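Exam revision sheet. Question 4 asks you to relate a sequence to its structure. Input first:
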Amino acid sequence: MKFLLLTFVGVVHLLSLSSGKTIYKNDISQRSFQEIKEEIASYGDVAKAIINLAVYGKAQNRSYERLALLVDTVGPRPSGSKSLEKAIQIMHQNLQEDGLENVHLEPVKIPHWERGEESAVMLEPRIHKMAILGLGSSIGTPPEGITAEVLVVTSFEELQRRAPEARGKIVVYNQPYVNYSKTVQYRVQGSVEAAKVGAVASLIRSVASFSIYSPHTGIQEYQDGVPKIPTACITVEDAEMMSRMASRGNRIVIQLKMGAKNYPDADSFNTVAEIIGSKYPEQVVLVSGHLDSWDVGQGAMDDGGGAFISWEALSLIKDLGLRPKRTLRLVLWTAEEQGGIGAFQYYQLHKANISNYSLVMESDLGTFLPSGLQFTGSEKARTIVEEVMSLLQPVNITQVFRAGEGTDINFWIQAGVPGASLLDDLYKYFSFHHSRGDTMTIMDPKQMNVAAAVWAVVSYVIADMEEMLPRS
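Answer key, structure tokens:
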């Protein structure tokens, strides 16, 4: 899971991603908002039927049970791994057996990194074996490891002020958790900033809203022209302990060993299935989640839940015998955790048809009880989405928030396509995010039922309305 805040303006959008050549104009509806509002209100019975089937009917708990079967069978699904490819093949078969249309795999190239054996032991001022998780794409240490004194800092600014002290040391970041989008910069950029001042390794306090001595991994990025140094996350508890030790003037020494390796890019696939539109089959409402995960836990929450409620949305619509005017396209992305690698290649392949995308949806912030929908788009589109969300009054989930986003759909949103994401309990989400605790134990079937109902109602109604969502 990643974050981005995106804005866009203008009637004519120049698509600068890659070619920068595609230009389109959006057709402006001649209907009054009152007419559109009445059209949306006419979907009240359909929305209730979807909700009843998902929450109370024979489909209740189906997304949870499907997810449990996959993650219990396959386990975590890191980019480039055999387990990810096994999961993709299983899902390809599952979608075919579910009776969805145009089920296929679209080839992509994705990164392949493995953490190997890893350890960190504090040698001074006392012996203490620390829990760590190497960060994605990190290099390893020499076989004998790196043994060095520690410099503890709380920010990049403090690191710059104390740059002369950093040379030859292991930089430990004990940055306070503000929120994910602000704090994650230390995980992503921490090794580069430490290397710039001569550090030999970096250890980053896990980006987590809550910790029971749990390290949280994630991707980190090297920078051209800056030495690559090993980097890992440590627990909140150890980061704070070393900060206290340093404030007392204790000399801290750590031995770090990491067997991490980067391999050549691997072959993989985005997994696609559809309900083909009855009137405008070339137009698309895209519903998605990512199938890959980190290599710890089960990847049940991030993003098994999002992927499986996206599948469930199409299953619910199919089970009710509904066929929207536009094509509903399910995409299960690969290599999201490495920065939306599979999704970017999908965008490159399909962007020529960007004017046919009415809405792109991604669930990658958990499938706990939803609080509403995050949306990015024109104000006209927002008022339409607000009316659609009013159809979810039976489950009391009607709010529309700003900043719809998702690593895998941001390419489309940046180009002007309306985008939506599911919002729920982020405190709980980031307590388990990228940790060994991301397992089926934290998933709730009843909450997944509601999340699936929200996802199905929104995607179906917008796909079946007479007109596409208006753009700026």
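Marking note for examiners. The CA atoms of residues 251 and 375 lie 50 Å apart.
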